[in-house]
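Subject: Re: docking follow-up (flavin mononucleotide)

Dear J.,

Thanks for your patience while I sorted out the input files. As discussed at Tuesday's group meeting, I've set up the holo structure prediction with flavin mononucleotide included as the bound ligand rather than trying to dock it afterwards. The sequence and the ligand SMILES I used are pasted below, so you can double-check that they match what you have on your end before we go further.
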Amino acid sequence: MTPDDTDLAVLADALIHSRQHIGPKRLVAPGPDEATLRVLLAAAAAAPDHQQLRPWRFHVLGPQARARLGEAFAQALQERDPAATESQVADARDKALRGPVLLLAVADLRADEPGVAEAERLVSLGAAIQNLLLAAQARGWGSGLTSGRSMRSTALRQAFGLQEGEHAVCCITLGTVSRAKPARLRPAVDEIARWEP
Ligand SMILES: Cc1cc2nc3c(=O)[nH]c(=O)nc-3n(C[C@H](O)[C@H](O)[C@H](O)COP(=O)(O)O)c2cc1C
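The structure tokens for the complex came back this morning:
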């Protein structure tokens, strides 16, 4: 048996390759409960983190927070497009209500630590998100990431009390997959790797 044939390797590969982005409209109730969310967040907390700066956190959004997020989405749209119609504004607001469980991922780039570049801190957040998504996938929950210009809006920053140097990166929706699209074709290994002699 080669090391690739161990049960753990087979499981890990199956988990990684079966995860796919599911849009929030296709994630329906039920979603993971608080106990499960805590397990998923503990998986996020196991992400690599140079000098252990903890350069990110997750906001778990309850109904009031989701209403605040919806208002921020609506306000951000109106600010960047004053001609937006009522139905477009309502649609923007609605985005915060899709899916049973919603988290907001925030990068904290404030730590004055010249040895750890901002890019490294964002990599750590990406790893934390992926840990969370895979832990969710392993338990049968679907997930999707959403972002867009509203993430950088003053309205959203104010709604979640973000300080200078803190950045809302994306939302994470978790729930039951009602309808999955065919899996995306992933890049071939030789497209993403250069074998340096
Ligand atoms: C930080 C981040 C933000 C994303 N934001 C969006 C988004 O706003 N809308 C969307 O449809 N997908 C979004 N995605 C998901 C990607 O579209 C998706 O991961 C990509 O299509 C690859 O598909 P896969 O995850 O199924 O492999 C985001 C992904 C990341 C990493």
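A couple of observations from a first look. The first strand starts at residue 27 and ends at 28. The chain has a mean pLDDT of 96.

Let me know if you'd like me to rerun anything.

Best regards,
T.
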